[in-house]
Structure formats: C-alpha cells, structure tokens
Amino acid sequence: MNRTFALALVGLVALLTVSCSGSDSSRDAGPDALADVAEDPGPGDPGEPPADPGTDTVEPDADPGGPGSCRFLEPATDVRMCMHYENGWTRDEARADCEAVQPGVVGTWDPLPCPDDEVLGTCRLPAGDQALREWIATGRDPTRCNPLRTLCLLSASGTFQAGPLCQTLGGPLAAWGSVPFVQPYRLCVPARDGEAPGQTDGKVCTWTLISGCTEDGRRFQDYGYCPDVITQRPYSPRAATTTASGDPRLQDEAYMAEVNWMARQVDACGCTCCHKAEVAPRGPAGWHIDAPGIWLDGLPDSGLALFAAFADSRALGAFPPEANNGFDRTNVGIPSTDVTRMKAFLEAEMVRRGLSEEDARKVPPFGGPLVEQFTFAPEPCDGGEGVAADGAIYWGDVGVRYLYILEPDAQGPVVPPNLDLPEGTIWRIEVSNVSPAFETATYGEVSGDQVQVFPPTGSPRDLESGSPYYLYALIDVGFPVTRCLFTAP
After folding, report:
1. pLDDT digits (tens, 9 = 90+) for 175-207
2. Is-contact 272 212, C-beta < 8 A?
C-alpha cells in the first residue's frame, strides 16, 4: 500500500521509554538585551524587502503629541521593530533612548505611535526606572513568530502577545501531534546577570530543539524555549525508580561527582524539558535529573543502553558538535561535551547493574515510527499520486504541512536537524507551525503560506519525462500521509 495515513499514537510506545529527550532521539536581562539577540538567517518577509528604518519618519508638522516611538531594523533577524514609549517618558528621554536602541544600532525617532498593521507580536517589557515600554515586531513572515516570542520571554523577561499571523502558537501543555511541530531555531542572547559572557561574540547561542544544547554549565531552560521542544517528541509523565536512602553510593564522593556532572550536561540540553521536574509541564517523563538520591536510578536498562550508544538512536537526529556548543550526540546517546568521560561512566554503570554489552546491543532501535520512516522502502503509486503534466501535484485529499519530491532511491525524510533534508531531495516546500496546512501544490511554485526550503534559491530542476521520482507528503513531522514512486509525464 503506497499511501499511509497519519500514524496511530499507539505506535509511539517505544519512544516513551526514554520519552522526549535528546537521548530519546529537535532571564533577568533588561530590555536592552533584545539588542543582542541573533537568529540564524531565515527567509525574509515574502514579497517585501525590509524597510529602511528612516523612510517612515514623519515631518514635525504631523506632531500628535506624546513621547513618540522608535523605528529600527533588528540587524540579525531583519525584522522591523518599533519601540513604543508610554506617557511616563518625555520626548527628550524617548529620543535619547532611540539613539542607542540597540548596541551599535541607532533608531529613528518618530513623533507618531507605532503602526498597528502587519504586527507579528508585541512584547511588553518590565518597568525599570521609567514608565513601561514595549517593542512591536512587524512583517509577514510567520517563521519569525517562535523566535520573537522566545526572545521576548527569555531575553527580555517580557510578556508576549501574538499578532494575527502568530495566533496559533502552541501553549505550554502542547504535545507532539496536538499542535504542529515547531521547527528548530537558533537564538543568540546575552548571558544572564551574574554569568560569564557567552562564547559566541560574547553571546550565548542555543538551538531550540530537543537535541539542541546551550553552553556547558548553563541551563537550557534559560536559553531555549521548552514549550516548543515539547511539540517535537511524544511526552508523557511517568514515575521512576528512586534511590534507597541508605544506598552506600550516596556517600561515594567520586561516584556522586560523576552523577552530578552528568546531570549538569543534561541540564544544558533540550531533553531537560521532559526530564527535569522543575520544567516538565505535567511532571517528568520517568527519569529526571532533579530526582532525590541518584537520578540515574530512574533510567531503565534500555535507556542506559541508549545513553551509552549501544542501542541505535540515529533516527532521532543529532547536531554536529561544532554547531551545538560542543555537545556530541553521535558517539554517545545523551549529548555530552566529553564523550570519553561520559561513556566510561555509563559503561561502568552497566557493569554495576549487570547489563552486558551484548544485551545492550539487543535493545531495539529507538524512535518508534521514526525508525520505520528511516528505513521505509517506497512502492509505486497506485492512486494517481504524482506530478501531472501541468505541474499539479496530487497526494490525496488531505492537508499537509511538508511536501517533497525526491530521487527514487533517496531515503525518506525523518526529523531535523540532520535527517529532514536527505540526499536526493529535488524539491521541498512547507508551511510554518502557525500557518494552516495546504491541500494543493504545483511543482516549482509556492503559493499562500508555502515556503520553498529546497533548493534554497531558484527553481528546482525540471523532471524528466518517463523517469521515476519519489513523492513524500507529511501531515506533520513524523506523520507521513503519502510516500510512493511515480513516473513523470
């Protein structure tokens, strides 16, 4: 059967063994901290280049009174911003603030208030010595919604209100499959007060993805946004085994030092969103690093096999260490900046438990339905699916969020960051998590909220008449609906 509709959640049981973690494999700064946020380059507002901040300035004779506003282009994200000053600000104060609205950025003061059209979101900043102010982000690019919200909440300690284009952002109790998958995004922000400067031009850069990590020694919850991470894996609270109060290991300083070091490593990574009681929205998913006693005791043997990289977890995805603050999840199952140290302790723990390497290697691959997608072999389409002579693509009568045309021998896409754009991808389009699914598409074209991800620029190559190609359509990441081979007309 070449059309497979959304996978039933019962198929996710295998994932829940070490649920929602990298091993299951994607602030008190003041308002000026907004200035130092950097996001990986993404698509700009469709059809409209960023406005020159100076072009909106009105002449003084249009003066409506009040402190006015400050217009500027956030240099790292190319998002148009407007700083709104409440009436507790004088004009001179607002002008002076606007002249240094961000380090290295001079804004353009405007006597008019901020615009109220094309608002992506508004961040109300905490009051300082003066009256409140807020920044307003404008544009038409929904891929900016998640980074802007995270920027407001974590870096500015503000309160974010989504604009119309960003209204469908998931809430803190959202779970995988209940709201659209939030694609990874990277933010670079100043270190929290009292912490050392970050390692990237003085900033701390973090991927908001379950396999993403902030810098070693810092907490993911301070630099990444857990509600977005929760959308990327199945999550379910589950009780875990606890340590007996008289366990002699509790008095073994060397042993406990390693246990605590491992906890700090986990605390820097996205898996902490489900495996730390302090931040897990409905309680931790089994093992958790803030468990009393020895937190590792809550990890089942299968999870220990995964941590030690004897059980296969490739289908869950991984960043290269150089892109993930030095954290490696390829040579060890749980992200670590010191793979040798981590493996040595985990293998010693296996010996202590009586878990042999042979038995650890017998643990089935982790990833549940993702493993099946990792190894799926497509068959010929049998329901008219494919690309028609006029370019119209038919995958069935259901809305999808991701659509691929691949070489016939390509591996099917799985999860970001490294498995969602497989070699042999010819064309990929998608919509952001805040946009509705689409039901029609034309090869080489985008319409509505669709965004072309591959090729990154220009049009895809023409399909050769009579040649086979692989059609892959997903309701969402992890939920394929059609995946079959068709022949180009």
Report:
1. 555 689 999 999 998 899 999 999 999 999 999
2. no
CA distances from 199 to 205, 324, 325, 336, 465 (A): 8, 12, 9, 17, 52
Spell out the residues 6+ positions from residue 47 whose beta carbon is closer than 8 angstroms to its own.
140
Q: Cα torsion at 309, 314, 320, 326 (round to 10°)?
A: -30
| Domain spans of the chain, in order of start | 15-21+234-370, 31-207, 378-487
Range list of H helices, 225-271: 226-230, 253-267
For residue 188, the surrounding DSSP H or E stretch is strand 186-190
C-alpha–C-alpha distance, residues 176 and 113, integer Å: 40
Helix pair angle (339-353, 253-267), 10° resolution: 120
Whole-angstrom distance, CA of residue 305 vs CA of residue 310: 5
Structure confidence by residue, pLDDT tens digits, 327-363: 999 999 999 999 999 999 999 999 999 999 999 999 9
SS3 category, 343: helix
Q: How far, rounded to the nearest angstrom, does the alpha carbon of residue 91 sit from its chain's CA centroid?
A: 40
Contact predicate 262/275, CB 8 Å: no
Q: DSSP labels for 156-170?
A: S--EEEE-GGGTT--
Contact (CB, 8 A) for 470 and 422: no
CA distance readout (Å), 456 to 46, 53, 261, 459, 461:
14, 27, 41, 9, 13
Q: Using omega within 30 degrees of 0 as the cis cutoff, is the peptide bond preceding 436 cis?
A: no
Q: Which residue has the tokens 């040579």?
A: 331
